[in-house]
Amino acid sequence: MKKWINCIFKVLQGISVALFTIGISVIASLNLRSIYKYSIQKYDLDKIGQLSKEKLMEDYNILLNYLQNPFAKKLKFNNFIMSSNGEFHFYEVKKIFLSIYLIVLIFVLIFIVIYLIKKYNNKKIKLIKSLNYGANTLISIITVLLTSIFIDFSKAFIIFHKIFFNNEYWIFDSKTDPIINVLPEEVFKLYALVVIIFTLIAIIVYKTIYISYNKHSKLN
């Protein structure tokens, strides 16, 4: 019984570290505005949207602020019209991003509480193994994501939306929501790859810390 409990505890540690890492990676990628600047140039979004790069970035910044600001109640672009369905979809996306922020915050608070409790009881905090469990969990997740992206990103993109949205408001009509013309599927693929790159960096860091710790422990 104790063996099963330890196994479950290890899995939970791995999932916790993985969720925290992916959350941080998503937030970092979302706020990396240079990705969209690069997308404008690479995919000629200024020509497609018939707007200058400055105006596209202007509305992109408005969107980012709305998605991440819990106090922003209304989304209104300066250069694009938007349907009620389109606005509702962005509201649902906003809830997802705010949930990611909440998850990251919860894990940070949990770590602080554990740290304070351990420090109060004069005990060392052992997070090295947790990082290794998290790295192993992330390797599994990244393998699935990379396979999905390179085999058929369009299908993976559709499945993602069907999982997280219980309606079809995410299927934009360019006539009523022309913003979709400057947010093509390729842009989301690029963001997904950047999230994966950040996550891979985290895996390398976690594994390096774990291996270095083990070597140091054996020497002592």
UniProtKB/TrEMBL annotation:
Parts of the chain that traverse the membrane: 7-28, 96-117, 138-160, 190-210
Record keywords: Membrane, Transmembrane, Transmembrane helix
InterPro entries: Lit
Keyword flag Transmembrane helix: yes
Record has Transmembrane as a keyword: yes
Protein name: TIGR01906 family membrane protein
